[in-house]
Amino acid sequence: QVQLVESGGGLVQAGGSLRLSCVVSRSNHRISIMAWYRQAPGKERDLVATIGSGGSTNYVDSVKGRFTISRDNAKNTMYLQMIDLKPEDTAVYYCYANMPSSDGATTYTYWGQGTQVTVSS
What we know:
The strands form two sheets. Strands 2, 4, 5, 6, 9, 10 and 11 form a seven-stranded mixed beta sheet that branches. By secondary structure, the chain is mainly β. The chain is 0% helix and 55% strand.
């Protein structure tokens, strides 16, 4: 069973930094798109950033210039470097991975369990 395990969350003051990690284990398929989502209390889960297998990235406007998504394909690991954190960044951050089957007929999607990021003002 494929597992995605996030780490690196915590409590930080506004203006501070955190680095999240997501390790994918037990994968028998090539990992295509990876992404970070976040869900604030009482709100829907929203996309934060995506990264393709070749390293192409996209960000939601609210984090551009402050967050950097990256991945190490050899280690099946994705990162989210967050700087200049704001109270509105407070949320549970989830890792997402997309893995097509070898014949391309099926796409498997997986989620991590989430890691809490709390930014105090």
